[in-house]
Write a structure and sequence with these properties.
By secondary structure, this protein is α+β, with helices and mostly antiparallel strands. Helix content is 22%, strand content 40%.
Length: 190
């Protein structure tokens, strides 16, 4: 057998093996990260991966957009340039409304400014009660976590209606949001 024939046969065998392997992975749904996250107690609120995520947000005087900068999960983050004087980004009922079986509300935010920025997180229930908390964002990467039990002291976490992210009293401010989720408390030693 000529050397060229051996190479062709080898390439064909490799291609058949790859096709068979990918077919099995697809058939048995081996590659399903959403299912793995759900089993780990993580529930997506916003991962900011599609234009559909943008359509679930309300805003005035500015246009958020998907960005490949400062991503902490997936391929995109949400880039928001708040106008001078501030602004807010909100969503009404376009996310999981019962937060009671989770322990933590969290997300990542990158402050693209050189100075600190105050971000107010407002969570409103169906009765109109509000949980509000300010976070000082340093320049660069920040991780925000709020315990659901703290939110539940103020509002009904089984009937969350609106989520608002607000920047006030600042010059034009660019922030990148990503990986907004509910999660179970991590056990010690895991």
């Amino acid at each position: 057998m000529h050397k060229e024939h051996k190479i062709v046969i080898f390439v064909i065998v490799v291609l058949i093996g790859l096709a068979f392997g990918f077919g099995l992975a697809r058939q048995f749904k081996v590659l399903n990260p959403e299912k793995l996250l759900e089993q780990a107690g993580v529930k997506e609120l916003f991962y900011f991966e599609t234009d559909g995520d943008l359509q679930r947000l309300e805003r005035r005087d500015f246009t958020p957009k998907l960005s490949m900068d400062h991503v902490t999960q997936g391929m995109y983050s949400l880039e928001v340039t708040f106008p001078a004087g501030g602004g807010n980004l909100s969503s009404w009922r376009q996310f999981i409304q019962n937060w009671a079986d989770s322990d933590i509300f969290s997300f990542d935010v990158y402050n693209d400014e050189y100075s600190n920025v105050i971000l107010k997180v407002i969570i409103i229930d169906e009765a109109g009660k509000k949980f509000e908390k300010d976070f000082v964002l340093s320049s660069g990467a920040n991780s925000i976590e709020v315990k659901i039990k703290d939110i539940a002291k103020v509002i009904d976490v089984t009937r969350v209606k609106q989520l608002v992210l607000e920047v006030k009293e600042a010059g034009e401010t660019t922030l990148f949001f990503d990986n907004m989720k509910l999660e179970k408390q991590k056990n010690e030693g895991t």
